[in-house]
Amino acid sequence: MIAAIEPTGWNYAAPVISALTAVGVRVLLVDHAVTGKQRDLKIAGIKTDKTDAKALAYIAADHLVEPYKHVYEIDPARIGAAMALRMIISGYNRADKERTRSINRIRALAHSIAPILNQSLTVYMRALALGFSSVSELRRLAVYCREIDAEMKAKRVELAYPETFKRADSRSKLYALVEALPVWADNPIAAEALLEEYRSYQ
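^ thats the sequence. predicted structure below, dont judge the formating
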């Protein structure tokens, strides 16, 4: 016995496929375009559940004689692996969407403190990685890095910069950001919320 089905949400399809293959039914996974073509050729152009079912029945019968392109027989031995892979992909997609939502929240909070922070988000996130989120903290960080610059220039010794600002270009961007910040810009409450959001993002 053979059955043809169209791809649907895996949560629905997986138990159906498992139940059919468990009793020895061969299951074909049919691309929607193939179903539509057979429906137009052999039944009617109107798409309904009934005409789709008839088209899939024709495909299943014809496939026994000559396999269709874009019609794939499901290997029962691989269903478990396929389900596990689907779960991994689904989990990754959910995490990716949440990261996107998180970065959007970070951008909104940064903009609420000062628009320049959102515009310079890359360098700002380097500071967030060190736990500096408020404007006053950014200014202290810039002063600290400049003091190291001066010490190294005067004494010609190697000193340790903060981890995310070891590169000279990243420090230059930090200095430019701090200089561009308005004098009035600071919002400790938003900065604290932003830091928590960043930690969740990480």
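The radius of gyration is 30 Å.
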